[in-house]
Every structure is written in structure tokens, then in C-alpha cells.
Amino acid sequence: MRYPAAETAARHERILQEASKLFRERGLNGVSVPEIMKAAQLTHGPFYNHFASKDALVAESIDHAMGAMLRDIVAIGESASARQQFLDGYLSREHRDNRDVGCVMAGLASEVVRTPPAKGAFTRHLKGILGALSSKFLSTGKGDTRAEAVRTVSMMVGAMILARAVDDPALSDEILDQARAGLL
């Protein structure tokens, strides 16, 4: 049975959204295709109508989630207050505690290393994010905005990874606070 193109596209989008959440929450290998399809309220059967493999889903899911992050950065204003708002949002307890809707870079970078099909989307969007940040609000007059963007993203993502990894809530908060202070 054929479905209208709009319905097929909506189902595809729903699969991507659910896969992206589950991958960020449980890791690329911590979730199965049937679990993703169930979360998308679909049966396992039509998965291969949308994706050639789980690796293809992983790559498209990363493309989807990082593309959304890039669009959010592009939509941010170009001011010191916009920079602070961006950093406050990223380096927040809410972001730390909600991995399923958090940053793909902080949630999955260590797994993308071992997933070659995902590297292209990850690389392309990281380059876009660095470009958007350097043109948006990273110019401090201290030199190369691209280098500043690389340092900023590295510190943000590293801080989020560490804040999520420790079992000491006070230390986790301190990591976020000190990273934010170092970037403002």
C-alpha cells in the first residue's frame, strides 16, 4: 500500500526525531531499530522504506540534529547579550540533564569516531557551526575569530561532557559555571 508523499515525509521526520533523541540519550549502539520505530509509533517493517541501514539512519539523524543546532545559531542575534544567552543556554543544568534533546556533539562525538557513515554529516555541520559562531558574535577584537570559535566550541562541548560524566552534582555545576565564566 502506497502512502501520500506528505505522509511518508512526516513519518520519515518522526523516525529521525525519535532516533535522534534515543541516540543522544542511550548512544548509537544502545538503541535498536525496532525501539526507534516503536518510539516513532511505527512497526519495524517499513524501516527499510526510509533507510538503507541503521548506519544510514545514524548519519541522517546526526545531520538532522546538528542541522537544527546550526539553524538555531544562525537565528541568534549578533550582540554580546546574544552571546551570553547562547552560552548560558548551552552550559546550563537543563541542557546537562536532558541529553535526549541536547547537543549531538556532546552526546555522540566519541561514538561518531567509530561510525564512519556519520562523520561526513558531523564534520559538515561542525564546520557550519564554527562559521556561524565566528561570524555571529565571537569577534572580541583579539584576533582570529575562527580560532576563537574552535576554542569556544571545544570548551563548551568538553565542559558538557565532563559535567555529565561526574557523579558529584556540585562538581558538575562547578564545571558548567567555570566554563561559562571562562567564555564570557
Automatic annotation (TrEMBL):
Keyword annotations of the record: DNA-binding, Transcription, Transcription regulation
Q: Which domain of life is it from?
A: Bacteria
In terms of Pfam families, this protein maps to: TetR_N (PF00440)
Q: Which residues bind DNA?
A: 32-51
SUPFAM superfamilies given in the database record: Homeodomain-like, Tetracyclin repressor-like, C-terminal domain
Domain HTH tetR-type, chain residue ranges per copy = 9-69
Task: Tell me which InterPro entries the record gives.
Answer: DNA-bd_HTH_TetR-type_CS, Homeodomain-like_sf, HTH_TetR, Tet_transcr_reg_TetR-rel_C_sf
Q: What is this protein called?
A: TetR/AcrR family transcriptional repressor of nem operon
